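In response to reviewer comment 3 from the previous cycle, which asked for concrete evidence that the modeling workflow produces usable outputs, we include below a single protein chain processed end to end. The sequence was submitted unchanged, and the resulting structure tokens are shown without manual editing.
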Amino acid sequence: MSEKCNKSIVLVSGGMDSCVTSAIAKLKSENIAFLHSNYGQRTEERELKSFNAMADFYNVKERLILDFTHLSKIGGSSLTDKKIAVPKANLENNDIPNSYVPFRNANLLSASVSWAEVIGANAIYIGAVEEDSSGYPDCRRSFYDAFEKTIEEGTKPNTNIKIITPLINMSKKEIVLKGVGLNSPIELSWSCYESNLTPCGECDSCALRARGFKLANKIDPIL
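The workflow returned the following structure tokens.
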């Protein structure tokens, strides 16, 4: 989607990918609104802090924080169930790790579409990454293509909302370089699955971030 959007909603978790996505959305949109979700994840407090810091950085007036507590009640993920240990990083693993929160992105997108209809947004930005991620099934572009068809079928006839995934085919190295090039406030982001205080350095998300900075020959500002 190359044309400029009138208003875009950006799903901002507080992580590096959503941080860089925010910079891209800001560049390509006349107006942006930020949406954040609390769903009982281990680092909920720290992610919310990052979300608000990014929203302040970009001077975002419209921001919505939603509680998806049903995802923690459903469980099935090490991010929401403390009885399930967060696995140590294994970047060669091809199986879906237990940090996958079942169908989370569909829940977030549904709420985003509802809000988009109300505030007149015509795009939803999400920092999903397909090639260099943990293999989550709801981070594939084919999933977002299918969801766009759902939006078309389930909204008002004059509604036109696209899901934009600007990082979908990037590696973490490319995301780091893109963020640096756009002066994205990566120092405000938080990627760790385990800790609210200091990055554990051992989970998939920490390892992917560290590898990205190393390959990009850059120093992670949060360290």
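DSSP finds seven helices and five strands in the chain. We consider this sufficient to address the reviewer's concern, and the full set will be provided in the supplementary archive.
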